[in-house]
Amino acid sequence: MYNREAAVRYAHQWWNSYNPAFPSFSVDCTNFVSQCLLAGGAPMRGYPGRENGWWIRGGAWSFSWSVAHSLRWYLEGSRSGLKAARKQSPEMLLPGDVIIYDFTGDGRMDHAAIVVSKQNGIPLVNAHTANSRNRHWSYTTSTAYTAGIRYYFFHIDESTAL
């Protein structure tokens, strides 16, 4: 079972620093979200194919582990291991779920964040790159925000297990 509380604990522990057990990147948002999902018990699969699956191992990782665009497609298409359902609104998300951001609306995903709580039904997220804790999910205060922003809301399947 996916342990949302463990994923959120990890997100709060490492939101403003980097776990030395993992690589860090200048654009670290998806790597951080992947670490949170792993801490929640999400199973890795697809090694050693970088284009397939979701994994990190022996100093290498899949594209979906570290690239927001690839994680979006992985979450939308995975039928085994780590699975998620795309939702239509942020209010449908729970702590431990994921939001992927296309800041310009060009179809290329730019950012990923993990939901860590809900305040009056509104999700708050933690993220890396511009390290954020308990940030409003919409990112309207971000310098990357544009009027064309598109959001992809993913509810992690609780039956996801190691």
Structure characterization notes:
This protein has one domain (4-156): endopeptidase domain like (from Nostoc punctiforme) (endopeptidase fold (from Nostoc punctiforme), Alpha-Beta Complex), CATH 3.90.1720.10. Helix 1 (4-14) packs across helix 2. The N and C termini lie close together (8 Å). The strands form two sheets. It has a six-stranded antiparallel beta sheet with strand order 3-8-4-5-6-7. Strands 1-2 form a two-stranded antiparallel ribbon. The chain has helices at 4-14, 29-39, 63-66, 68-77, and strands at 56-57, 60-61, 84-87, 98-102, 111-119, 122-127, 132-136, 150-156. With 162 residues, the protein is of the alpha+beta class. The model has no long low-confidence stretch (mean pLDDT 96).
Integer-rounded radius of gyration: 14 Å
C-alpha geometry: globular
Q: What is the spatial order of strands in the main beta sheet?
A: 3-8-4-5-6-7
Count of helix runs: 4
How much helix is in the residues?
10-25%
Count of individual domains: 1
CATH homologous superfamily placement: endopeptidase domain like (from Nostoc punctiforme)
**Order of helices and strands, N to C?**
HHEEHHEEEEEE
| CATH fold title | endopeptidase fold (from Nostoc punctiforme)
What is the tally of beta strands?
8
Would you tell me the structural class of the helices and strands?
alpha+beta
Q: Give the biggest sheet.
A: 6 strands, antiparallel
Q: How far is the N terminus from the C terminus?
A: 8 Å
Low-confidence stretches: none
